[in-house]
Every structure is written in structure tokens, then in C-alpha cells.
Amino acid sequence: MTASGLLADIADVGRDRTRGGYSRHVFDTAELDLREWFAGEARRRGLDLEQDRNGNLWAWWGGPGPDAVVTGSHLDSVPGGGAFDGPLGVVSALSAVDIMRERGVTPAKPLAVVVFGEEEGGRFGVPCLGSRLSTGSLPAEKALRLRDPDGVTFADAARRSGLDPERIGADPELVGRIGRFVELHVEQGRGLVDLGGPVAVGSTVIAHGRWRLTFAGQGNHAGATPMDDRRDPMLPAAETVAAVRRIAASAPATRATVGRLAPNPGGTNVIASTVDVWLDARGPDVPSVVRDVEAAARAAAEAEGCTVELREESWSDEVVFDPALRDELSAELGDVPALPTGAGHDAAVLSAHVPAAMLYVRNPTGVSHAPEEFAEASDVDAGAEALATVLARLSR
Q1: Which of 112, 1, 69 is nearest to 392 (CA)?
Q2: How many Å apart are CA 24 and CA 257, to the nearest integer?
Q3: Is the Cα torsion angle 249, 253, 256, 259 positive or negative in sign?
Q4: Rounded distance, CA 246 to CA 213, Å?
Q5: Alpha carbon of 106 to those of 99, 101, 359, 396: distances in Å?
């Protein structure tokens, strides 16, 4: 089946009627439904399915073994995300298997389609959780303590989904099977729009991280507390949100965003006791930006009689994808362009351990992580064809 047809098959899974778009988070109903869908598609193709100790799914064409060619992506989304981010790489990988068979290609090396869990960090706050755990770049003890917005730990969620929390963690034997890894993804930007083709290869991923600022004051009654007798953490939180924009704008090539803010207890007629603010910062000057944001937050908190605590939740250095593999893929596809990205990917995590590459499919809107994210069906299918071409080369 074509990649666009497979994407249409899952178009109704995880629709978010409140936010628009899709909300599919690791081990929730929508994501589990998509896992079942993937398992069915793998069986229909005669692929051998296994779930690893960290909840990632592997569908093998040929028995698992060393020097494997691996492709795939993720099925989870950000809250209210688009239809393409993650699933496009998975459906394209399945379609590429079909295309290779139609072309009479039988891989000489083991080939696998992988679905990584919690790439977006939409439930437990750490992006690329499945690939970070497998490679050992995230300690298991830290991951198991992570909590979702309802207070459920990752350990409990994993246990409910049939995983053994005591086995979660680095999996060097599995990662060691990978000879080359290629991830196809919808472009998150407009680099391809003016270049005249539907596909590009990836060059770099900029450094990026997430931090949580917790402002603490005095919860109280909104009507009974005079304005000059308040320690309201919402004020320094709001001032910090504005400071993030100002500070990032003065740092070249840096992007910083506050996309989530959570007051506790969150009542309309209640002065909050605490407010959590999540900062996403990316670019070459992130450490100094975070220091300046922290300084602004402390000054604003002190002025209101509040306190603030800053905690790093994740960090990824700049990634340069394997140049030889990048150039090999570009040449095989007719010298398609190489594009940088400000978005993180499982391929970037794996690149520290195995040769890894990215393929991007044109997104005419340039919008991602939102319902307006888009790719034409013809471009989706062209991406799957390109993926089949490079997989055939790498697996021979």
C-alpha cells in the first residue's frame, strides 16, 4: 500500500476534539491503538515483530542480526499536533518494504522498521525517551521516576503496558545490531518549498534542551486578599515568559519558547501557590540564554516575595549527521539538497552510536507541531519511494 494510503488508515486515531489535530502520547489509548495497527501491518508483510525492554517496536525483514539497516520513526505526538510528525516516517518505512518487494529487491542484510516510544516527550516531558533509554544516554532510574500531568510515573505506565521496569534501560546488544539508521520525517520548516523537489537529506540538528522553572508564593483567596498583601507566583511567571522572548531575540540564531505553564491549584478565583513554566531553548548560545532567563526569573520572583527553582529536564548537543552516509544518500537520490533543522529526532540520538541519516519530505505550510502541518499525497509517496531506494542500496 502507498504511504499516503497507510496514513489515511490511521487518520481517525487520537484526534483531539478540544485542541484540534492529534494527541497521541506513549502508552495512552491512542498510542496503544497505533501500536496494534503497526503490529497488524508488520504481520501482513511477514515481518517478525518484537518489543524491546524499553517499549520500542521492531519489525524485522529477515532475522535480527549485526550490520542491520534500520528505518522508522515514532507514533506519538505533541498535544494537538499534526498528522505527519512521526507517523509519516513509520508508514513510509512500511510502504518502502512494499516498494522494495515490487522492485524485486531482497535485502542481503537484516532490515528492520522501528517505532520509538515517547519521541515528543508529550506525556513524561523528556523527548526521544525510547531511543535515549536504549542508547543509555538517559539513566533508567531517572526515566522511571518521571511523572505525567496526572502523577503517573513512567515505571507504572510501562508496567501497565506489560513491560518490566527492572529491565528498562540501556540495551547495547540491540543498538549494536544497527549498521545504518535512516529516519524519514516531514520537514519542520519551509526549506524545500523553493528548491523544486519533494525530498532532502538532513545535515545538522541544532543544540536544544528543556528546563522547568517552579515559582512558589502564597496561595490565597482572589477576593479576600488585598492587592498589596499578595505573594502571587503568577506575576514573576508572566514576567519571565516575556523575558524569554526578549532575551532570545537578542541572541543570534537562538529560539526560546514557553509553550506550557501550569498554576497550582489552577482555580479562577484562587491566587496560585506555585506556577510551573517550561522553557524550550535551541541554538548556539543556549547556556547564556538560560542563565539570563534564570536571572530575570529570580529578580521577578524576589520583587513579588516569591522563590523560583530551575531544573534541567533534557539536553542535546548539536548533531552533525554522518557526512559519508548523508552524501551517499544524496547522490543515490540525484543530489538532493541537505538541510539543517531545529527539531530533535531519534536519529539524532542514535547518531552518537551508529551512522544515522535523515530524509525530509516537503511541507508547503512550513508549520509543524500544529494541525496545519501538511504534505501533499504525491510528496508523501515520493518520500516512500526515495526511502525504498536508499534502503535498497544500504542493504545490498
Answers
A1: 69
A2: 22
A3: positive
A4: 17
A5: 11, 7, 22, 8
Q: Which helix (H) or strand (E) holds 48?
A: strand 48-51
* Bridge partners, 359 (sequence order): 184, 201
DSSP string covering 140-160: HHHHHH-B-TTS-BHHHHHHH
Contact 68, 110 (CB under 8 A): yes
Kindly state the cell numbers that stand for 141.
532510574
**CA-to-CA distance for 123 and 292, rounded, in angstroms?**
28
Give the burial class of 12: count Cβ atoms within 10 A of its Cβ; 0-12 exposed, 13-18 middle, 19 or more buried.
exposed
Angle at 368 (CA atoms; ends 180, 234), nearest 5 degrees: 120
User: Which is it for strands 356-361 and 199-205: parallel, antiparallel or unpaired?
Assistant: antiparallel
Burial of 340 (0-12, 13-18, 19+ CB in 10 A): middle
How many Cα atoms are found within 13 Å in the side-chain-facing hemisphere of 335? 0
pLDDT one-digit tens code per residue, 234-277: 999 999 999 999 999 999 999 999 999 999 999 999 999 999 99
Write the DSSP string, 286-308. Answer: HHHHHHHHHHHHHHHHHHTT-EE
What is this structure's pTM?
0.92
Of 242, 302, 238, 247, which is closest to residue 275 (Cα–Cα)? Answer: 238
Could you read off the pLDDT of 149-163 as tens digits, one per residue? 999 999 999 999 999
Q: 28-51 b/e with 16+ CB inside 10 Å = b?
A: bebbebbbebbbebbeeeebeeeb
- Tally of CB atoms within 10 A around 153: 16
DSSP state of 21: S
